[in-house]
Design goal:
The protein has 17 helices and 26 strands. Helix 8 packs across helix 11.
Amino acid sequence: MSVVIATYNRADSLRRLLQQFDEQTLAPSTFEVIAVDDGSMEDTARKLADLKTNYALRIERQINSGAAAARQKGVELARGKIIVVIDDDMQIKPTFLEKHLAGHRQENTVVLGRLRPDAKLADMPLFERFYARALARDGDAYASGERPVRGHNVYTGNVSFPRELFLKVGGFDAQFRALEDEEIGIRFEKAGAHFTYADEAESMHGSDWTSMKKWMDRAYRDGVYQTKVGKKHKDHLDSQPWRHLPNINPVSRPILAFGLASPGPAGLLANVAIRTASAFDKIGLEPVALAGATLVYGIQYYRGVREETGSAIDVAREYREFKRGIALIGKGGAGGSPLKRMLDDIREDNRMIRVYQEKYDYRLEEGAVIPNASSKEIASDAVRKIGYQLMVAYRVMRFFRDANLGLGAQFMSRLIRHAFASDIHWDAELEPGTVIVHGFGLAISYAAKVRAGSILYQNVTLGYGLDPDTKAPGAPLVERDVHIGVGATLFGPLVIGEGTKIMAGCVVNRSVPPRSIVEAPVPHVVARKAWPGTENGVASTDPSSSKNQLAG
């Protein structure tokens, strides 16, 4: 592992962090630390020249170019296969690196660690408590599984990823002097990375920021760079600055709209509002003060959005495009309406059944080719094949979900439960071309994902659970062409590699590499049932035994 730290004018806090790396449970020979000084006013390397460490430590210096450029340089110098990026004002436990490493049992994984506030949080400025509360809420949502980690959630305060993945996506984009972590996280997601949350790979954030003005400037800058990220990734709606608006309190929306429409006067309003919030904080009304800080952040953020977007006409146009994209998702995406997508998916499910029938049905003549089904044949299969019936019911449930008809999706979920004794959540993702055999007794979590070509037999469970090592929550991701046998139970944030066969009765809670065979233990002793006239299941050898003769 290689730890990369970008640092700027924080030699003392960096020293503390480097000393804590000397206390790690991992052997010092298994990791290195690279700190890149981004043009500090102090000479960081000289100030830390007396520091002796058991692990390999390297301190480099560059002209001030921003944190993204400093981290980029650090990764380029790194020798480890796994890169850990952490801020210079953090504190860590001895198990920090061990917990990060545990999250990388499978390839292409990005591990996000928990950010905890300093124990002296109550003594911190209002704006630091605002950030700490927001990070705590997000962390709790990730840890509980309420919200999955995605690319735009990545932060460089505490994250690890494969160096190969980093280089594959092109590294940090140095034009981003803020939100460079979110931007590369989106590229990780587009490259097919798997994201997991390691609650125990925690770091404690002890910020030394004291300037309210710098905090407000940062909020403004976030708006500017969020707009830049959105422009670069127009196909990723969660990267757009407008994504927050639907979830904002309706009372606050006109004020934020004012920030977009009139950024100058809105700046004056933000200054008055933060002073008011600080006054409430001083008299002990912290909840009111935090609500005020949240509003001020929003005003500044959308003032920054306005600057980067252009005129008010440009803002209106961009927001209309965003809403059009949201509406397109509600209508089934680029593939058309929810109804059309449902019918296409049902047809693809049927086609895959025929692919496997052609491959495995011993009753067919060798070399026989089964043609694609007509609509009439698909309807016939839906009547005759119980597993396919279940898939059709699942597609109808997803139709209601994609059409934003939540009650209909819930009704179908209950219908599936009673008709097939299967509990499949409407958010579970079964790609078109998934095959279910027999179709009863399945339990599939809302966070489970199954790729095309996979076969699920009866009584299969894809459940939500905890990783046995990292304790990170999640549900299975089943890659393409995986066969899961009768009664198999898979749970936790594991990945079943492409082409794997999970045999009947297996219990799996760890990831499996591609093209594997997973078998349940086979009993070594099979005892005969004891009958009258037998001892320990073995017939009596007494020839005069009538019971033995009868048994014979």
